């Protein structure tokens, strides 16, 4: 059956140039309880409407092998990362949300430009298939953002700013949030070669049945 042989050859060519199924590993940072700050009059803790959330996405290869992304940006000796360097980092989204407003701290915001008054520390690491450890800080006059993840699967976040990244209830005082870290791996997405081989099987079976019906 020449037609079937040709289909198999075409699928084999795709297989030779394709990799296996893709699957990312996602670390979600889920806040537990309210964000707290100090009342400016009494000093007693009060709840703020600002909420913290975040997500780090690494490849399954990085998760299996372990990873360590460690950068400092802000001083004369630590320039911003290039576009190619940013593209090599795992996807990061740390967000402060209040009402309909959201402020996002991603790789480009943290490491993509050089601001002489901003000092940024950035570290995400894990042993092979191990627990995540992380530490991100932004220090600037009148502003602070600090996020840390501990091996036991919890995180803390501190943030407050007069002008650089102000959020409701977290301007004159530092706000504090805490929560848990969850890890998930979505269903792998088949590569084109896998789909091609599946198609060969379906088409081939259909042609064989048709020929038998005509015999």
How would a textbook summarize the main sheet?
Answer: 10 strands, antiparallel
Helix-strand pattern: HEEEEHEHEEHEEEEEH
Q: Major sheet: order of its strands?
A: 5-8-9-10-11-12-1-4-6-7
What best-fitting shape do the alpha-carbon axes yield? globular
Rounded Rg: 25 Å
Low-pLDDT parts are 14-19, 194-198
Number of helices: 5
Counted beta strands: 12
Query: Which structural category fits the helices and strands?
Result: alpha+beta
User: What count of domains describes the coordinates?
Assistant: 2
How many angstroms does the end-to-end distance come to? 15 Å
* Oligomeric nature of the chains: single chain
Q: How would you state the average pLDDT, rounded? A: 83
Helical content (DSSP H or I, runs of 4+): 25-40%
Strand content: 35-45%
Notes on the protein architecture:
26% of the residues lie in helices and 41% in strands. The protein is α+β, with helices and mostly antiparallel strands and 215 residues long. The strands form 2 sheets. A 10-stranded antiparallel sheet has the order 5-8-9-10-11-12-1-4-6-7. A two-stranded antiparallel ribbon has the order 2-3. It starts with a helix and ends with a helix.
Short description:
The protein is of the alpha+beta class. The protein has 2 domains: 2-16 and 190-214; 23-184, no CATH class. It has 5 helices and 12 strands.
